[in-house]
Amino acid sequence: MIVRSAQSLCPVCLRRLDAAYVREGDAVFLRKTCQEHGPFTVPVWRAPQAAPVPHFTAWSRPKAPSFPEHPLTSVREGCPYDCGLCPEHGQHTCTGLVEVTMRCNMACPVCYADAGRADAAPDPELDDIAARLDMLRHVSGPCNLQLSGGEPTVREDLPEIIGMARRRGFGLVQCNTNGLRLAREDGYAAALARAGLDSVYLQWDGAREESTAILRGRHCLDAKRRAVENCARAGLGVVLVATVVRGINDGELGELLRLALRLGPAVRGLHIQPAAFFGRYPWPLEKSPRLTLPEVMAALSQQAPELADAADFHPPGCEHELCSFSAVYRRTESEGKPGLAPLDMPASCCPPSAIPASAAAGALASRRFTALHWKGMPPPPPTGDDVSRDVDGFDRFLARAGAAQRFTLSCMAFQDAMSLDLARVRGCCIHVARHDGRLIPFCLHNLTSEGGARLYGDGR
Ligand SMILES: [Zn+2]
Q1: pLDDT surpasses 60 at 336
Q2: Is the pTM of this model over 0.70?
């Protein structure tokens, strides 16, 4: 039964195709057919039988689009071919991302950026990075910024880049890292904090070395632990970010959540990213071990029932509802064991949220929450912003539990060439500021065809 129509791409030739969400039993699939390359089906919403997760249609959250004030491209071929952002994009930037290197000090079998290749492009010069930061600040305002790669810490001038970002007034300056250098180099975390870094987005896939070794090619949990300790001493907030693959580490999400809490209040949250088919991805396209949002909700609530309940999870107020879920908790303790109590947020906040008045209000609330919670300092007030009235109650909520006492549990399902839905792309709020001057949703920036061709390959 068709639940709703959509538009997607052929994963082989990347032509735009009509598609449909189709229900089969309790699961929903995205279906499409390319005249040249045939039919494709990918699961979008499924869960173990009897898992208490929301139904696909009940999860739906339509939003009034918020079009860019400063579009950088015009509409010619239509979405997703004119991206940059074009005037038809429906959401503001919550997180702007700048890739500061394609080099890496690891060689992970799974890597969405396909980083660390022998033929990796040279690092962008500082003036190139400055131009990207200026463009992002002009188009997206004081959004949250993530320095990414590759592995940003392989650049000796990373503190300088952090300082450049800080001086431009971004709401949150965060670095995406595998943590190796933070673990082994005395004073490095403190140096990044002094340069203006707020938060570390730390790759941490599981609770066991065996699964970590499959995804990362080596054991690294001790190093990750040291990295968190060093960040805590330097006053940096840490978010653990787990790449999750069905059959490899989806069975240890509960254990990972307990571990995240035991690491102490410097760890502000656990963010789960089911692996998508882009970059280095060692599974075949049609038989890839995918995980959908409700499968992650079910895994967390069944594996750590003392900490998380599927009813805690809310759709995003900002990006498209099929892209993520989240919950906010207050840390508790009972009999010496760390625990969690869900915090209800006002309706206009995100994450999580009920239906916001508009995509703009959702974006503003999301940006401010992330900035405040992930670093633990007061966010800039939304002065002069005509959507500020929509976040009434937000500051009262934030005051109820200090940053170190809050914990977020969230999941983002990236879209690849199989699962891409152009409505989701237009609702995206995570945008990559590129060398070619374009600002592109994260999934389109990384999108690769079955054969490895990138939709936006040039101008990374
Ligand atoms: Zn095709």
Answers
A1: yes
A2: yes
